[in-house]
Design brief:
By secondary structure, the chain is of the alpha+beta class. Helix content is 53%, strand content 26%. Helix 5 links the parallel strand 4 and strand 5.
Length: 193
């Protein structure tokens, strides 16, 4: 579809450019202009045919640019035994579970793009406060790259970009720890003297 759009766009450009050059040359002198108008106006059928072809090219160009909802998208790669297709949703779910391996990562939302024969990954993270983000990022990038190569079979991982969207303080967890410290022998109560 992209190739067809390119061809139609190229033909449309050539027709417009040729028309512009023709009219620009005709506009230089009055006689040339009158001759150009006479050629177009002498045959209404010819003018109608040219206009129809031009409109058809425009419609084709617009229609080839409309993207259709394909439902689920897949990344496909070739192996020795044939082709393998993995859905984008399956890859996102798999990468989100890799984030569970890191205690400092509260949530990981991956986005994947296939570029040529390679894969690009964007990771949006929520991390705990106090996390050494440069070290975490490096370890996470290495782990994601390794997981994609070993488990999914993509050998060319171009980039893994990490965006830390939120750094979350651990105040709610401290309240739960404090409550469990107050519970002694099954009895809840205050430990105050």
């Amino acid at each position: 579809m992209k190739f067809l759009r390119f061809i139609v766009g190229f033909v449309l450009f050539v027709v417009l450019a040729a028309s512009a050059v023709y009219l620009a040359n005709a506009a230089l002198t009055r006689e040339s202009w009158e001759h150009a108008i006479g050629v177009v106006g002498s045959s209404r059928l010819r003018a109608l045919e040219c206009a129809s072809v031009f409109l058809l090219l425009i419609v084709l160009y617009v229609l080839t640019g409309i993207r259709r909802c394909k439902g689920e998208q897949f990344i496909t790669f070739e192996t020795e035994g044939g082709s393998v297709s993995i859905s984008m949703k399956a890859i996102r779910d798999f990468l989100a579970r890799v984030g569970d391996e890191f205690a400092a990562v509260l949530s990981l939302e991956p986005a994947i793009r296939a570029v040529g024969g390679s894969v690009e990954v964007d990771l949006n993270l929520r991390v705990k406060a106090g996390t050494q983000i440069p070290e975490l990022s490096k370890m996470l990038q290495e782990r994601i790259r390794e997981s994609i190569k070993d488990n999914l079979g993509f050998t060319d991982v171009r980039t893994i970009r990490i965006s830390v969207r939120e750094i979350v303080t651990s105040a709610p967890e401290k309240k739960q720890e404090k409550k469990s410290d107050e519970t002694v022998g099954g009895w809840e109560g205050s430990m105050r003297p």
